[in-house]
Amino acid sequence: MPDATGLELLAGELRDADADGVLDTLFFRDKSVLLVAPAFVPAALEHLRGKGFRALMSVHGVDYFPEEPRLGVHYELLDMHEVDRITVKTRVSTEDPHVPSVTPAWPTANHQEREIFDLFGVHFDGHPNLTRILMPDDYEGHPQRRDFPVGGEPVLFTHNETKSPGWWK
Amino acid sequence: MEITRHQDGAKSLQQTEFRARQLKARDMLNGDLDEADLEQHVRESIVTTTVDKALAWARGNSIYPMTFGLACCAIEMMSTVGSRVDVARFGWEAYRGSPRQCDLLILSGRVSIKMAPIIRRVWDQMLEPKWAISMGACCSSMGVFNNYAIVPADKFMPIAVHVPGCPPRPEALMHGILKLRQHILDDPDEGWRARYGGFGTEEVFPTDSIAVNVPGGEEGQGA
Amino acid sequence: MQAERSEDAVSDVVQPGLREQTIDVSSVDTSELHEELLTLNFGPVHPATHGVLRLIAQLDGEVIRDIKPVIGYVHTGIEKTAEDKSYWKVIPVVERMDYLAYMFNPMAFCGAVETLAQIEVPPRGQYLRVIHMELNRILSHLVWLGTSCLDLGAISMFWYCFRDRETINDLFEMSTGQRMHTRYIQVGGVFEDVPPGWEAKVREFCAEMPSRVDQFAALLDNNEIFNQRMRDVATVDEQTLLDLGITGPLLRASGNPWDLRKAAPYCSYDHFDFQIPVGTVGDNYDRYSCRLQEMRESVKIVTQALDGLPEGAYVTEDRKYALPPRHELATSMEALIHHFKLVTEGFRVPPGEAYYPIESPRGELACFVRSDGSSKPARVHMREPSFVNLQAITTMSKDLYLADFIATLAMLDPILGGIDR
After folding, report:
1. How much is the pTM?
2. Is residue A91 helix, strand or coil?
3. Distance from C-alpha of C279 to C-alpha of C291, rounded to nearest angstrom
4. Strand, coil or helix: what is B112?
């Protein structure tokens, strides 16, 4: 992992490119994290690619409800030669959930960004095919958000067998 | 000390019996047996049954299940086909890919809301008589994941046997299979609607549909 | 089939399968011919897709021009369910994602939680985890081999592979109580120590397994049909695979020896001496060979782990995270209180986020856990290798015959439970 000083150097370089790009750095449990503004994400990833982090391992979403901005998108980068990992995180709110897509530059993000769109509602601008991937196409709502109910059916145990819903009727 | 010598005697008794039966059978075929003898011979040696029972026997011992693995239970269903718990002992090993050729749908795994209409369509494409086994806790009763994405199988199709477990051992699935086989051998009603009282659930097609193989009527009624 | 087509034809000249004879259609008047691509749906219910995978293929005769996977047919909302349950209870839920690698899913999750809570797993616990994970790797490859050969038509392999799978299932049942989805790997170590007699049975299995793998190889390696179907089919270069984020045996078959067990060892993997099988050409045959050889290497790891199995605790001594042994409940008040807290509320994990990658039979399996300080995780996400690997299917099956595509899909080893979660 780039250690804490290495992380600050990286952050410094990124701030040289765009002063408002990097919002924060974090070194937690031996892992480096860069918090960037949504619009700066592709540029940050490209810069890190130049630094050797050439593999994008994972793009996943998080819902930080009730903290604002609520929706987070995390990019896990891997440097195979140095065996280094670094995470780039960005946060958007539900009112304006737009993040530029990194799929053109990193083809591996294709399905993963679609999954975040499906389950969280984050729009990736520039994605070739931003449609629902896991839920049915006409599903309404974004299930992985924290305020979406878990749902489920009442299970028939012996004590409530008389209240059988009788679905077959 | 008493030494009983049943074996030899029994064997020779069986041998004489067998020989006697052979001679009687030969006489019957020649037409040489008279009334009383003939009746007794028929009573002893020919199994009479109804055609329905014979059909049920044949049907129950040669079910074609469908290759329908959904999730983890599918692996245990494949184990049932494997050599330790061998479903071929009962004649049920001929898994077919096409629902038109199958009698049995083993729902092995969790049924998601995206998959449910497809399963129902596959079920409708199967020809009567047909049965379904709901294998595992997820399709029987939501299982481990009681949430927005799963549907219990009872909600959209009739299930004959529910096999609990997560995943059920191959022996447990075999127990469910044997229960179903007993049910089939007992010659139940053929239509699933008659068996489960599911009348009123027929699909009704509009008259101007392009489905030409739907039986006629004022509104074409589907299966 | 190499066909001479007129200049205004839709498709280019096709060059697959040079062993077929050429058919000359130049004498046919093709000016009236209208060619278009056939869109064919491989429904979710299909015997050759490994699970409920739907593929929409654009076919030019028998040749695939484009194929798109449609997934979601076994989406179970596992990650959502995991947010609703305490950390201990998430383990069985998360196990059922990649349902053939049911020791790896909880390993990734427990690793992430242990990172957050800064728990040390004792050496015996680590070694037991390794033994179970490697046995699971062999099991996963066996099921893959059995079902793939079923797709290819070598149907006997299915029974041979499942016979060995039954032996491994018996071992798991002896040590954990369940054949599949054992919830054996817990936060801080493993659930229970292995019973006496288990080690002998595992050694028996390890003594027999290499010869079984040799039998599989004897059946398939030099089989003419197998070779014709697999050699030089669906060759993809390493850089394309890296761009698509592919890891695991798929990447190793194309020559890149990336394996997290060697590159970034976790859970005492650096104590063991084993090799990473790497392919040379990057075709389907290499993918098959890599996995076959991985089975042999896993047997070596299990044997070494058994030889070096340390004595001691199998789960962390920190009673705030792991249950105390039952005999202590009768004598120690603290043990009773810890037991009560753990069973009713569960343990609390310090707030933070962790990403823990491991090497599953299909590639890099990682678990992202976000904790907000309570006893239930705020977000659990599994970076599933099958989900990412499936994106390669379009590239891998360009201009392949349909039959070769089925073989390629089998070699990709997708597990829909992991893809859809």
Report:
1. 0.85
2. strand
3. 10
4. strand
Fill in the amino acid letter for C260.
Answer: L
pLDDT for res B144: 86
C329-374 pLDDT tens trace:
888 898 888 888 888 888 888 999 999 999 999 999 999 999 988 8
Contact assignment for C355 to A58 by CB distance below 8 Å: yes
- CB contact (8 A) between residue B149 and residue C44: no
Which of B148, B155, B198 lies closest to A151 in CB terms? B148
CB B155 within 8 A of CB B192: no
What ipTM did this prediction achieve? Answer: 0.90
Q: 3-state class of C268 per DSSP?
A: coil
Token reading at C8: 């205004």
Q: Does B88 touch chain C (CB under 8 A)?
A: no
C68, amino acid identity: K
| Predicted pLDDT at C3 | 40
Q: What's the helix, strand, coil split of chain C in %, to 5?
A: 45, 10, 40
CB nearest C75 (choices: B112, B144, B169): B112
**What pLDDT, in 10s, does the model give residues C73-120?**
999 889 999 998 899 899 999 999 999 999 999 999 999 999 999 999
SS3 C289: helix
- The answer to whether C173 faces chain B, any CB pair under 8 Å, is no
- Put simply, whether C364 touches A (Cβ < 8 Å) is yes
Lowest-confidence region among A144-158, B139-153, C141-155, C274-288: A144-158
* Chain A residue with Cα closest to C384: A58
In angstroms, the separation between the Cα of residue C123 and the nearest Cα of chain B is 31
Instruction: Closest CB to B113: pick one of A136, A156, A168.
Output: A136
Query: Which residues are paired to C213 by β-bridges?
Result: none
* Residues in contact with A85: Cβ distance below 8 Å, sequence separation at least 6, in sequence order: A1, A31, A32, A57, A76, A77, A78, A79, C355, C357
Q: Is B40 left (phi over 0), alpha (psi -120 to 50) or beta?
A: alpha
Whether the CB-CB separation of A134 and C71 falls below 8 Å is answered with yes
| Pick among C41, C42, C45, C172 to test the B interface (most B CBs inside 10 A) | C45
**What one-character DSSP code corresponds to residue C280?**
S
B50 contact partners, CB below 8 Å, separation of at least 6: none
